[in-house]
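Q: Structure tokens for this one, please.
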Amino acid sequence: MVVSRVVAILGGAAVAFGLALPALPAYAAGPTDVYVEMPANGGDDAHDCSLANPCATVGAGIAAVASEGTVHIGAGTFDGELRPGAAHKSVTLAGAGSSGGASGTLLTADSSADGFVLEVGEETTTLTGLRIRGGSFIDALVDGTGALVANHVVLDHAGCNLVVEPGATASLTDSTVQEGGSPGCSTPTPSAVIAISGGSVALVRTHLLDAAVNVSGVEMTGGTFTADQSTFDDSAHDVVQNDSSGLKVIGGTATVTRSSFHGWGFQGVRVAGGAAVLADDTFQGNLVGVNVETGTATVVRSTFQDELASVQGTVSVVGSVLGSLIGGPPLTGIQECNGTITDLGYNLATDASCGFSGTSRQNVTGLDLDSGLADRGGPVPTVALLNPSVAVDAIPGGATYGASATPLCPASGSTDLRGVPRPAGGACDAGSYEMAGTTTTLTAPTTAKPHADVDLGSTVVEPQVIAGLESPSGHVTFSSGGQTLCTAPVQPDGTAGCTTSGLAAGSHPVTAAFTPATGSTLHASLSATRTIRVGTKPAFTSAGHTTFVVGTSRTFTVHASGAPGVRITLVKGRLPAGLTFHAGKGTATVSGKAKRSGTGRHRVTLRATNLLGNARQVLTIVVTR
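A: Here is the predicted structure, written as tokens:
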């Protein structure tokens, strides 16, 4: 970096000529909270920077704060060229901005700025709720051993919005980096919105917007870069005129997960050295999704749509949807894949250019992708799968890939780019989008009479794992043993119900299956099984007494009603000598020749049983001579 080199040269010259450099000022212990306001709001650098008497410049606030503390900056525009770390201070610069720093506090480069608004060369500087606008300068330079932590911050309109050099670190969360790459950004690489020559940079739920022509969103020549649930968007959408990439990896290692790349005139991701791992990402409307010239790239569970080519060069692909050619016949020479593609399994492509085989499929129809990027819930726009896409449940639960058997569809612990849990329904959807799971419940009576009207009901719910999911639409089918009993549409409140008279006597396991409407982005679901016992309860219909004469053969038949058929058994008491009980279904008998020793009155208890319950009868048997 120009700034770093200038300081180094001056330091070397001082040593060579025996000059003494001025010592850093010694800061006395100060308050942990200081305040800065515009002069119109009472700010004055002659003040002590207290809440009642705020300073007028951010530099004065930094000078006044203790070795660790917060500079509270009011609304307004303040000049930059700030070096909190040079004073050996870990400082939080807290602006008055709304979420993302879109309004409130603005830091800009003053006329004497040495190439940046903020330099973090030592210690940790935290930014929150403010905007930095560097013009032709750099918004934030992180070098030396500095660490920048930014939350709800906007870095915009600069030569380079963020420059990170070897040994330094930067992380941005819930922030926006935009409109960078203008002339005048002196970096070790060509101008970029974020330039990384070493160290590490991490983006979380951060939007990178780039309208400059032929300027990369992120360009790295070394170090590490990670991004999660972030957006890389060429906001000018000038694909045919703009030779730019969302991420250009010349050296180092980049890992981008659950993010989207949109509208880049060259490639969404370009690897020209180094390595990139891209998982659960969406590539939409770029000239080419991923291009690898030298180095390596692995694409995992990602979706490509509306591009001249999904991947080209030397790329490994697994569990992905390559749907760039959807929407009409491809142009001559345009195809999903160009180059040496390593198929790691469970991919779906609309043509045969990738050479997919085995668990992967080519020349696929029925992907049913959304027409473009859309807000489908969560922090990142994406291309949705629409019911009944063949990509749904295309990756079986427990699937792995590669020689190290890396999990591709683990039972839990992974999500799509929106944060929707994978898998839904026991298997994972191919690509970056997982249809949100639904839960279907069933209400039904426990008993019913044969072929009588039975009311069946259900409720379909989409658990709000993320905000912004659609409400269920479609129909519920109630069935038993492979027989459809009835079907009902899902109402706006998620309920569905219908009546059936198709249940004969017996035990019937019933389920309710939700089928989403065509174009829905919700997953089908099946209720737990509920058993309905259909029939009538047992009842004895024969007399409760009978007479046998000693020495005379006779049979008394016991009858009981009930559906399904009842079984009659003797459960208590003993028959007179010479008589025998024969249990049966629907009927039972008492028969034989009573013996003299059995003369008298005898009581036995009979039971009739079916699946709806049981009934008892006391049978009196009189034996006479």
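A few notes: The chain has two helices and 53 strands. The two ends are 125 Å apart (CA to CA).
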